[in-house]
Amino acid sequence: WVDHYGEYEVANRRTGERAEVSFTQCGWFSRGWHEVSATISDARGKAVYKVEGRWNEQLTYYKVRDGPSSAKVIWTKDTTPASGPWGVAFKGFSRHGQEVNELTELRQHTLPASDSRWRPDCRALGRLNYRKAGRAKHTLEERQREERRMREARNDPWVPRHFALVPSASPGVVDDWLFTNKYWEEREARLASADVSDPVTPTVSDFSGLSKAGTTYEAEE
């Protein structure tokens, strides 16, 4: 049983646009469970878009000036049952869940070593080897605890690979985690070394273009 709840903010430090996201805490009789909403504002702080729905079913969005009646669906959960071992290992598992957990041939060339899809317990679970999955999970967690103890003993804090801690641009917030783009650079290098192309994945050059183009909204009255 999982209850994702709380509020957080996603900010574009380059353009000043922000999204305030709120996950509703589950109440009595499952009231509000899985509900999520977001308000997307421009650089002036004016609300432009609203996103609403359930993160495990469907999300819709609409322009604030047009109201909820103009809402359009932007994502719907794929309810097609998972196939093969995944359909047997996880009762009620959808095709979407299978796709984001499967270690396909392409992903073997693109995923970083830290991606959870490489975890031996997940791989064993996907092969229906529950006993091996349990042992692998225990071993991994013990290694994580041991590494944490060793780091604390030598005063060596963990430094994230793909995010950098920078002074916050938000009032009342001490720090912000800024994406470094190293993930995409390393991903491109892995694809190049494996001589594999992935037309779906954005490249570093795509992100560089965004920094110049910025974002344009329609004129608001």
From TrEMBL:
What Gene Ontology terms describe what this protein does at the molecular function level? sterol binding
Q: Identify the stretch(es) annotated as Disordered.
A: 194-221
What's one Pfam family the UniProt record gives for this protein?
Oxysterol_BP
Which InterPro entries does this chain map to? OSBP_sf, Oxysterol-bd
Q: Which residues form a coiled coil?
A: none
GO cellular component terms attached to this protein's record: cytosol; membrane
The molecule here is called Oxysterol-binding protein
Q: What is the organism of origin for this protein?
A: Sexangularia sp. CB-2014
